[in-house]
Records
---
Amino acid sequence: MQSLSRVAHVAILACFSLMFITKGVSTLVSKNGLSNYSFPDKFMFGVATAAFQIEGAWNEDGKGESMWDTYLHKHPNFTVDHTNGDLATDSYHKYKQDIIMLQSLGVKYYRMSISWPRILPNGTDHYINKAGVRYYRKIFQELIKAKITPVVTLFHWDLPTALMDLGGWTNPKMVDYFEDYARVVFSLFGDMVKTWTTMNELHVHCYNGYDLNAFVPAMQSHGIGVYLCSHYMLLGHARAYHLYDKEFRPKQKGKIGLTLDVFYAEPKDSNNKEDVEAAERYLQMHLGLYAHPVYSKEGDYPALVRERIDNMSRTQGYPRSRLPVFTPEEVEMVRGTSDFFGINHYTTVLASASSMEPGWLVPSLDHDAGVKSEQDPKWPIPGAFWLAVYPPGLRKIVNWITNNYGTRVPIIITENGVCDSGGLNDYERVSYYNKYLYQLLLAMHEDGCRVEGYFAWTLMDDFEWSDGYTVKFGLFHVDFNHPERKRTPKLSALNYREILRTRRINFNYIKMPSYKYNNL
Ligand code: NOJ
């Protein structure tokens, strides 16, 4: 631990000598490469991780199995490199190193998640695993000692297998189970954790896992399970919010919200009305479906989404809509249940209208949306195929959220980042963070959007779901061949630390090897 601390600090100091001048960007950047705009002092800068992607120790100290454990053990070829999360970055044993890394970055906030089956091995609250409780209490204590505020996600996709066996989020009873779990967690950790996010990325979770077979549980209940999952997750979130609000907030005095996700959608041809409508439909089907019930004044699903899925269901011969219906009481229960708008954003697509594309199933969310999405060949793709770099997308999505839901609650970027194929000299990641954060400054200063926090994804290279360990998102490199899972800071870690220190983007801080990273 000590030696890691020294390594991290020495490497960071050594790399300060790498500061030279690069070309580029815009008139809002001064001659010395510094952005003219800055982030306010109280802006929450952090990094984010998730339990299943880093902890390992899948069966240690009484932990129950999550659906990802069980599924990957049964289907070892599911991930592209045939790996699983059994060891991951071994943060169950190395969390103290992780905290030293956080300190070396200078972050004041750390978004992490609790593994539900580590606390409740069978999913339900009749039995609590004390070793799991001790583990998280120690992390929170160490974080607070290091003056880092924990921001804690209750559910980042690692559902206890015992509950998946009951149908996972397609089962209405999950709403009760999630509330029970939330009660346990608030009671056990609410003295130390003051910012909660109930759930991570409802769209990705339900679409990849329940509509498609891209993520566990690989249910392929296309066009049906995907909306049951969305519906009961929204209700579960709302129940946890009210539980906290009534029973815990008065004493614990914290905040609680939700983390959604979206790729921004640009019309493929902005002069073509159908493309413009397709882009809006994409945003409504991917984000509005989850955000409107919670953040709009009137609540409930957006009219566009409701009508579209109702009509499709009718013409397809279904006796009722495949999108479940909230009762008026449920609309009220879900409305307004978030103290902030947590949004994960990575990339943008070009949208055009289409009634059928190769690969779409009928029914399915894609078919219901009727939007063909593609990437602009001009956008760089440094790692995974889906992540094309288009920095203005962040400014645009923050504006879209503001225009649709107002400024009652602040926006927090709960994840943003890029993957590459590895290495310490991660110029693409440096460039990505500089440019995306710069667009965020523009959204805040020029457009008046209320953005109060930003979390980089992610602290270190980790288990990237179906991509296994093949793509790297970390600010710190992890040597997965090393028995100690050795961590080393990348150039992007140094750059992020400098942004946090100065509250500005310094485009000259890391010397870029060529102009190719400055072409946006
Ligand atoms: C969002 C998810 O929350 C996170 O778990 C994942 O690793 C990143 N996207 C990158 O794909």
---
Amino acid sequence: MKFIVCENYEDMSREGAKIIAELLKKKPECVLGLATGSTPVGMYKELARMNKAGKITFKNVTSYNLDEYYPLAPDHDQSYRYFMNHNLFDHVDIDKAKTHVPDGLAKDPAAMGKAYDAAIDAAGGIDLQVLGLGPNGHIAFNEPEENLYVGTHLTGLTESTIRANSRFFEKIEDVPTQAVTMGMGSIMKARSILVLASGKAKHYVIEKMLDDRITTQVPGTLLKLHPNVVLICDREAYEG
Ligand code: F6R
């Protein structure tokens, strides 16, 4: 794993954007795996700026997002589809028909999950997967547990994740308690992975990412088994 510490959130966002921009130049028709949450917002802003300046294009990009709340409609203002439109897709020249988010209203989430993984494979697999880290070490919504799922699946959210995500909702009762999420296998199949982490709340998980052990109790640590991961954090996340 390549590890980079940046001075602050803005530098981390620029470093992340640089890596994606390089891929877009090398492989304009690449498949991106994308994340929501506060962490990548600055990087998405930087990518939109570079796109406006004519330095990069998303015209031929296909994207697959990690997860979606369940049950939640795509036009709900807290849905991850809404988030992606608002924070990236509406600001770049991507063809929205080529952007995918797991279906938060799927009647049969297990079938939807299988189809989602098959669609990623059919698209040629993910070239670069963007990830944030939960304060408890979750990646996508693979929460700390003894057993983790391989494929895209329906899952319950932990108390701590519901609490962490309640900052985006009016009240904690409004936070969905379930989500559909790519599994560990869906993520590990990506050819390269870019992990971002910012702020003191991520210090615990950064420490776990940097030791020489893996545990399903901190799902992010399993990324140490992947041959092509870049982890970028800011000084607050590094020093705590
Ligand atoms: C988002 C996702 C989550 C977040 C994580 C960190 O699509 O899958 O795993 O990456 O919860 O969230 P933030 O960035 O808000 O701290």
